[in-house]
Amino acid sequence: MALRGITVVELAGLAPVPFCGMVLADFGAQVVRVDRPGTRSDSSRLARGKRSLVVDLKRPRGVAVLRRLCARADVMLEPFRPGVMEQLQLGPEILQKENPRLIYARLSGFGQSGRFSKVAGHDINYLALSGVLSRSGRSGENPYAPLNLLADFGGGGLMCTLGIIMALFERTRSGKGQVIDASMVEGIAYLSSFLWKTQETGLWEQPRGQNLLDGGAHFYTTYRTADGGFMAVGAIEPQFYELLIKGLGLKSDELPNQMSIKDWPEMKKKFADIFAKKTKAEWCQIFDGTDACVTPVLTFEEVAHHGHNKDRGSFITDTEQRVSPRPAPLLSNTPALPSTKRDPFVGEHTEEILKELGFSQKEIIQLKLDNIIEIHKLRVNL
Predict the structure, then answer these.
(1) 306 is catalytic
(2) Which end of the chain has a smaller Cβ tally under 10 Å, C or N?
(3) Keywords in UniProt for this one (predicted)?
(4) Pairing relation of β-strands 30-35 and 323-325?
């Protein structure tokens, strides 16, 4: 795989960092997740392909274990607020002095500097500070966050992954690692560059929820079907809009101009009445295979069974019969080969990893007795 031979140390956290680590693991990196003592299970559920080491970083001997691990790693991935790692004597100045090739990725909500850098926050807060939340929502309603996907996983986890890949590539020239300051606020703002670059085009001149791409247009929104399902409509271009009109059983010469904004509300009502007369399956029979840009809104229960997704093998099933998306994008020569095994137990690989680092069995036993590490192996009841 593309990242074969790359070793990553991931300090356990929530959402963005585990996702970043999972992407790296999916594409071949060897990822060790460092868990805290007393942790019973992995709350992120994003541990595919990783190993778990439990060590107490609040004690000097635990810090020494992690420094030993980072001395031979390619990437350190940490989720804490600025200053936490420095207090633990695990900041980039120390770790990169011991390993100049180490790429030190710091993924946080507000970044490593600025007045908000040390305060708490979640996806909706980062989305709000980026400006993007102000553009999201229906007309006449409060802004709303579209799940916790944009900041946590788009502007956070995925943008940090991109930074790591770029730093790994640059290291092939300089031989040196670098520090990555991945701010979720800035990540989601960067993702929204199109919104910024099109402000003067008239695309967003109407109030929120009344523009072409935010649900205002009758040809770019969703409609409920007779059986309680939904269809998504995105027929922007005239030739696609004409196919939409035809599929709905309407005639263009009897309708207002597609881009007549004042007629959009009435047209949405007309479309809604028509879509409500057939089931989702019936609408699929009409629009599937056409360029009308009309697709079913698939539920999680339906998505893996849809014909197109089955054709491409877009979803995978693990050994516990849990379905999840296949890693993307699909590389022609070195595609991701995600693990289908169960996620690791917290501390399952502690002993194995310490032995790889050169710790003797006696040293490992003593670390366990002194509560510096925890070892949790799978027990089989016969």
Answers:
(1) no
(2) C
(3) Isomerase
(4) unpaired
CA 202/CA 121 separation, integer angstroms? 33
- Single-letter amino acid code for the residue at 284: C
pLDDT tens, residue by residue, 190-211: 999 999 999 999 999 999 999 9
Query: Which residue among the candidates 42, 56, 152, 343 is catalytic per the annotation?
Result: 152
Q: Would the pLDDT of 59 be above 50?
A: yes
Which residues, other chains included, contact 370 with Cβ-Cβ below 8 Å and sequence gap of 6+?
A: 61
Q: What is the pTM of this model?
A: 0.93
Task: Give the other-Cβ count within 10 Å of 213's Cβ.
Answer: 15
Question: Is-catalytic flag, 152?
Answer: yes
The residue among 153 and 43 whose pLDDT is bigger is 153
CATH numbers and ranges of domains, the chain: 7-192+333-374 (3.40.50.10540), 220-297 (3.30.1540.10)
Order across the sheet with 294-296: list the strands.
220-224, 230-234, 294-296
Place of tokens 């998504």: 232
pLDDT in tens, 357-378: 999 999 999 999 999 999 987 6
